[in-house]
Amino acid sequence: MVMNRRFFHGLLIAAMAMTAFVQAPAIAAESKEQAALALVKNIGDEAVKTLADTSLSEKQKQEHFEKFLDNSFDMPRIGRFVLGQYWRDASSEQQTEFLKVFRDFMVASYSEKIGSYSGENLEIKDATSLNDKESLVHSVITRPNGPPIKLDWRVRDTGNGEKIVDVIIEGISMAQTHRSEFASVISQPGMGVDGLINKLKEQIKTASN
Amino acid sequence: MGLRSTSSSLKVGLMATALLIAVSGCATPEQKEGKAVAVMYNEVYDPLEPMNRYFFDVNYALDALFLKPVAEMYRGVVPLPVRDSVTNFLTNLKQPIYLINNVLQGEIDRAGHNMGSFVTNTFLGLGGLFDVAKLNNQQEDMGQTFATWGVPEGPYLVVPVFGPRTTRAAVGGVADYYLDPINYAAKENDMDHVGLIRAGASGIDERSRSIDALDEIEKNSIDFYATVRSLYRQNRNNLILNGASNSTQLPDMSFDDDDKPVKKN
Fold first, then answer.
1. Which residue of A has its CA nearest to B251?
2. Which of A63, B6, B102, B199 could make an SS bond with B107 (beta carbons 3.0 to 4.6 A apart)?
3. B64 interfaces chain A, CB cutoff of 8 Å
């Protein structure tokens, strides 16, 4: 009888503990996805507003874009990811230098697209959870001419607020594309991480001319 | 005549399939030591890279000399509505082979959409010149069908003239050619050049719509070959999954300095 009672109590406590366990992450997950949605929504509104604002010069828009990149993207994490297996082998000077050059490379590659804005809009759909820290925000770029483009944002809770770690366009991850490309450059004979850094610097120079 | 060509086509198709299995059999990636290597290995399997780079350059030169100028001229001279009709017409001709592949993949609803598009656009859209059905059916090919059957993708290839392919997609492309009812219909009516004309028209049509995008990618990449290879493979995976969000395929970005490993759900 005593055994039975104990067992029953144990079961009760276990059940209570389990519900508490299950509930806590569920609440956290929901707020995490909400935060991710809010972040992307903000970015979308801001971007469209900036791009459509005819009173701003191209240069001003570019400054907005740089600020946006620095504030909303977890650039160090993305930089580390795109260096892949070579991150570990790189010296800390190389790592620092690469992160700086990679950020400038992103600015140079994407900022010139600013001028080609022609009435596109960002429509946020929903968010799914990837793991305890990350969620994927689904959105669609609607265009005045042409079919819509599927755009997913991988958002991570960095402990320093929600930050974007990857952008996935029609199933194509920008981070993975860059990682593939960089790995190919590094592995070429005589290149290495320094070779990659030099190539990126050249690219930045030609893009800014 | 029709029967003989059917059986010989079938033979070619079977041979292609056998070749695919043989190639993918030798090409099963071995697990190397260390997680990072395995991930990279999984990401880019390109054992023929020197040869592929060579043909990539050859194709680039061919494109610069022939395809791109023609595509640019076509885009410059032919007004957009006419070009749209050409695209619609060519897309409509692809619906039968899309349908076959959707059936082979067990995607019956999608096959129904292919049927609906083809019938509607052929009869109400003046032989496919106008997209009345507006179903936006996605490309389906034997490469994708093989993938859903579990055939591995095999090494990455750059095929002369045709461009990037996984081995699976290259063999699938041959199989598609011999399975395509449109090609049969053309052969039955002694229009032997239809296949070639169709391929040429599709090439110009597709190239004319990707001029800006490709220029952009080339300008912003420091290794154009590697970028195209990555874009091609990611796009193939996306097509195979029919655009479903592939969250399980996303790589880990947590890194070992973090508290918890990524939990996939």
1. A176
2. B102
3. no
Separation between Cα atoms, residue B98 and residue B17, nearest integer Å: 18
State residue B29's pLDDT score.
Answer: 43
Question: Cα separation of B135 and A108, whole Å?
Answer: 38
Using CA coordinates, name the residue in chain A closest to B232.
Answer: A172
The verdict on B217 touching A (C-beta cutoff 8 Å) is no
* In the block, residue with structure tokens 């569920």: A26
Gyration radius of chain B's alpha carbons: 20
Q: A16: pLDDT confidence band, cut at 50, 70 and 90?
A: low
CA B17, CA B103: separation in Å to the nearest integer? Answer: 18
What is the average pLDDT score of chain A?
84
**pTM, to two decimals:** 0.80
User: Region B71-93: what's the mean pLDDT?
Assistant: 96
Q: Does B236 touch chain A (CB under 8 A)?
A: no
Q: What average pLDDT does this structure show over A82-91? A: 92
Please state, in angstroms and rounded to a whole number, the distance separating the CA atoms of residues A99 and B186. 57
What's the pLDDT tens digit per position in A121-150?
888 988 888 888 888 999 998 888 777 888
Q: Are the beta carbons of A85 and B40 separated by less than 8 Å?
A: yes
Pick from B37, B243, B262: CB nearest A171? B243
**Measured distance CA(A170)–CA(B168) in Å, rounded:** 22
**Chain A: residue whose CA lies nearest to B234:** A172
